[in-house]
Amino acid sequence: VNAILNAYQLLIESDQKDVLQNNISYFYSKTNTIKAMIKSQSAIHSLVVGSNEKADLLEKKLALKNISSPALPSPTVPEGTERVRFCIPAYNTQKETDLLIKKIQDTLLL
Fold first, then answer.
1. Nearest of 105, 62, 55 to residue 80 by alpha carbon
2. How far apart are CA 12 and CA 50, in angstroms?
3. What pLDDT, on a 0 to 100 scale, did the predictor assign at position 24?
4. What is the pLDDT of residue 42?
5. In sequence order, what are the residues at sequence separation of 6 or more whose Cβ sits closer than 8 angstroms to the Cβ of residue 79?
6. Among the residues of 1-110, which ranges form H helices?
7. Please, which residues have CB within 8 angstroms of residue 61's CB and are 6 or more apart in sequence?
């Protein structure tokens, strides 16, 4: 319980919440053209790929590019809405976010 309270206090005292919100907004705006991306105002975004096989393949291709993005296969999500999930952290720079988006787009083209 003390760890949670201390972490919450650090969050209040730092600007990390604002930095995170800016990163989320930036990612949201930059992925606006990717139609299969589920738009979210939270730190968690998903790219719908439509099958377990495609989700697994995309997870593996992104892992080769040092991007950790877990596949969410059915029955975790409804069949036909299988996806890969991206979590946007506060510590990434806009340049790193741009690189992530480029790698996502390049991987989708393969």
1. 55
2. 39
3. 95
4. 93
5. none
6. 2-13, 16-30, 52-64, 94-109
7. 107, 110
In one letter, which amino acid is 65?
K
Nearest to 77 by CA among 51, 104, 95, 54: 51
- If one compares 94 and 9, the residue with the highest pLDDT of the two is 94
Note the pLDDT of residue 10.
Answer: 76
- Taking the chain, what is the end-to-end CA distance rounded to the nearest angstrom? 47
The partner residues of 37 in beta bridges, in order of sequence, read 47
User: Which residue type occupies 72?
Assistant: L
Pick from 42, 9, 30: nearest CA to 105? 30
Q: Is the pLDDT of residue 88 over 90?
A: yes
Q: For strand 83-87 and strand 37-38, is the pairing parallel, antiparallel, or unpaired?
A: unpaired
Cβ 49 vs Cβ 43: under 8 Å: no
